[in-house]
Amino acid sequence: MRFVKNLFVGMSAAMLLASCGAGGDNQGTEYAPNMYHSVAYEPYSQIVDEDAGRWVTSIEYPDGHAEFFNSNKLNGKHRMNMRELPPNTVPRNKHGWLPYRLGKDSLAFAAATLKNPLDSTAAIVGEGKVLYETYCDHCHGPKGEGNGKVADKYAGVPNYKSDALKSISEGHIFHVITMGKGLMWSHASQISVEDRWKIAKYVKTLQK
Ligand code: HEC
Predict the structure, then answer these.
(1) Where are the coiled-coil regions (predicted)?
(2) In a domain, 162, yes or no
(3) I need a labelling partner for 148 at 20 to 30 A (CA). Which of 18, 49, 58, 115 fits?
(4) 49 and 133 share one domain
(5) Residue 34 has pLDDT above 90, yes or no
(6) Does any domain span residue 31?
């Protein structure tokens, strides 16, 4: 009798331990799996087993699979539900803008072709002023005359009203902010595309 009891306990323990074996694609036996598995599609994974969750839930879908099956069969690539982007897709930022592709040495081309997409409203020029005072004023000076506080130590800051600069286009200013020029470094990492165009609008008002 005792032997039978021991055998029973031993076998139960062995079964219990065996059910803990998880690894790779096998998650082992899960306790309360409906706490881990979402019924909705998960973008980065798929549960491809049609019977997944059948033992624990009574929900069955019309096409015969159990609750946890969540595979979008149209997109089984890499076992992700997420659709792959079509080839040659170009990422845009949250404003819908394409990446800037002109090289640093394309200033003349940028100056001639780029158009400011923003309107010349008082609100936009006003935002440009605030941004200018944050990012440019300390070198270029409050009126763009090249006499900011840093310009004392950082020689070569030009006057926006000089003959060479007074008629530059907004595209020119945008390109210089984005790529830098000569002694001036690129400000692309600090200033968003939209804000650069706002600053360009404001710089034009300083040249008047
Ligand atoms: C660290 C100082 C410094 C800061 C900050 C700075 N600049 Fe400049 N900027 C310069 C210097 C120096 C030059 C002259 C570059 C050269 O030709 O070598 C220059 C040149 C320019 C030019 C003329 C480019 C040309 O074609 O000759 C423009 C336009 C300009 N900056 C706009 C801006 C704007 C807008 C900002 C703010 C986003 C800004 N800069 C921030 C130092 C600075």
Answers:
(1) none
(2) yes
(3) 115
(4) no
(5) no
(6) no
- 70 and 34 in contact (C-beta within 8 Å)? no
With respect to residue 18, please indicate whether it lies within any of the assigned structural domains: no
Mutate to test the pocket of ligand 1, among 181, 190, 201 (most ligand atoms within 8 A of CB): 181
Give residue 134's pLDDT band: very low, low, confident or very high (50, 70, 90): very high
Q: Above 90 in pLDDT, residue 147?
A: yes
Domain that holds residue 115: 107-206
Beta strands (DSSP E) in 86-151 are none
Residue 80 located in a structural domain: yes
Q: Which amino acid is at 154?
A: Y
How many distinct structural domains can be found in the chain? 2
Element spanning 110, H or E? helix 107-113
Cα separation of 149 and 139, whole Å? 6
Q: How far is the CA of 47 from the centre of ligand 1 (A)?
A: 56
